[in-house]
Amino acid sequence: MVLLIIIIFLALVFDFINGFHDAANSIATIVATKVLTPLQAVLWAAFFNFSAYFISKYWIGEFKIGNTIAKTVSEDFITLEVILAGIIAAITWNLLTWKLGIPSSSSHTLIGGFMGAALAHAFTVDGADINTVVNYAKVVPIILFIFMAPLIGMMVAYFLTIIILNVCRKANPSKADKWFKRFQLVSSALFSLGHGANDAQKVMGIIGAAVIYYYTQVDPMEAYQTADDPFKYFVDHWSWVPLASFIMIALGTMSGGWKIVKTMGTKITKVTSLEGVAAETAGAITLYTAEHFGIPVSTTHTITGSIIGVGITKRVSAVRWGVTISLLWAWILTIPVSAIIAAILYYIISIF
Q1: I need a surface site. Which of 89, 243, 290, 324 has the fewest CB within 10 A?
Q2: Residue 263 has pLDDT above 60, yes or no
Q3: pLDDT tens across 67-109, in order?
């Protein structure tokens, strides 16, 4: 039980870190266009991060993304030590990339850590089939969306910007800018809702996997073992976990993350209020679509692709491709590096 409590605590710590690590995703453009001050922006984003709990629970009626995360690894290779190593690896990579100001994916570092530790565990089990460790039906869509999410965000943002420019081509520039600054409050709120709904559930998935493993080990005839959907049973009976997950990500967002705000808001391309509306709306559409299908995606990847999309409507050179390529490398390396860190940590934890 002590180890389970430690895992739940660290998972919520990761959730908090995820909040300030990814705060820039929904507020970078609104800060860059001076619609809100940084303090006002984080409070705005945090409120809607938390509000996403009520949409997921009472409107959608389930936590699909949390369910997907809990099932990325075969239950035969899940142990509390595996989950602990995965969480510590995810926290380590998140803090490192935050320190360096790199907008990497909190989602993918958590998934990479979980898989890496499970694979390390499988190598210690005699006769284990390594090929069955990862649940590819869940993981392959996640990996594909490393590339698909920013592409979808980019295309939606590009066409949305073109449509807006054509509709407003005869508008008074000064009046139009004032209106789009107001619209940015709405678009950033929509994106913050998507961020909260998408990212808070990932921690729920990890905690759910730990709780389900613990209780099925304590009592093989436990309800988790006989439930049609163990994760849904977990959510119904540990109802404080979803609420705590959304609270922690909101608190994390309130704490800021200014280095990444600077990268997202100014270094990729210069963003106007009109373009901010297009980028955030495109990002929100991408997140809601992925959530509908239960695919955990990176809010970081999504908004980056959306910002690039609005940038190339001006000209391709308006996007600082050197910064973008550096971000792409960080995205590609996140899962394998997190997996390696988690594998090493698993072996260290196993010694004790």
Answers
A1: 243
A2: no
A3: 888 888 888 888 899 999 999 999 998 888 777 766 677 778 8
Where do we find the tokens 């308006």? 318
CB-side exposure of 48: number of CA atoms within 13 Å?
21
In contact, 105 and 336? CB cutoff 8 Å: no
Q: What is the distance between the alpha carbons of residues 153 and 307, in angstroms, rounded to a whole number?
A: 8
Over residues 308-333, mean pLDDT: 68
The rounded radius of gyration (Å) of the Cα atoms in the chain is 20
The C-alpha atoms of residue 17 and residue 95 are separated, in whole angstroms, by: 8
Q: Quick one: which of 176, 197, 179 has its CA closest to 289?
A: 197
Q: Which two tokens stand for residue 290?
A: 């992925």
Query: What are the two backbone dihedrals, phi and then psi, of residue 230, each rounded to the nearest 5 degrees?
Result: -55, -35
C-alpha to C-alpha distances, 68 to 44, 168, 196, 224, nearest whole angstrom: 29, 42, 16, 17
Token pair of 204 as six digits = 């729920």
* DSSP secondary structure of 265-331: IIIS----HHHHHHHHHHHHHHHHHHHHTT----HHHHHHHHHHHHHTTT-GGGS-HHHHHHHHHHH
How many CB atoms sit inside 10 A of residue 298's CB? 29
Q: Which bin fits 25, alpha (ψ -120 to 50), beta or left (φ > 0)?
A: alpha
Q: Cα–Cα distance between 215 and 197 in angstroms, integer?
A: 27
Q: What is the DSSP letter of 79?
A: -
DSSP string, 99-149: HHT----HHHHHHHHHHHHHHHHHHTSTT--GGGSB-HHHHHHHHHHHHHH
The pair of structure tokens assigned to 155 is: 């295309």
Dihedral of CA 251/83/96/188: which sign? negative
